[in-house]
Amino acid sequence: MRRFDRRRKPRTAHARHILVKSKPQALTLLEEIQAAKRPFRSFKRLAKKHSTCTSAPKGGDLGEFREGQMVQAFEDAVWATPPETVPTSFTKTQFGYHIVWVHSVTVPE
Fold it and tell me: How far apart are CA 67 and CA 92, in angstroms?
């Protein structure tokens, strides 16, 4: 885990994710979410069913976190994703493949 600069206020985000071990499984889930009539509802259902993260019972909800709390590749995906949009790709980290749904991003002034 990285430390954030205490002299400036870090960005915060509220996100959900689906964590899976294999790339083919991530592709399949991503396609299913993108094809759904209600993608957010589908995302939560698939997170509960397929995610290997401890957040799975909560529909993949990670809650709000500050910059520097998550691994770099995951955070880069969160900051690059517009809030409340259907995921278009997945991110690979040492934990596996993440499909990320961003609820909100707060950038301090």
Answer: 18
pLDDT at 94 over 80: yes
Q: Write down the pTM of the prediction.
A: 0.89
Residues 6+ away with beta carbon under 8 Å from 10: 4, 66, 67, 68, 108
Q: Where are the domains of the chain?
A: 13-106
What is the number of other CB atoms lying within 10 angstroms of the CB of residue 75? 21
pLDDT (tens digit per residue) in 58-79: 999 999 999 889 999 999 999 9
* Measured distance CA(47)–CA(9) in Å, rounded: 31
Angle at 81 between CA 76 and CA 86, to 5 degrees: 140
CATH topology of domain 13-106: Chitinase A; domain 3 (3.10.50)
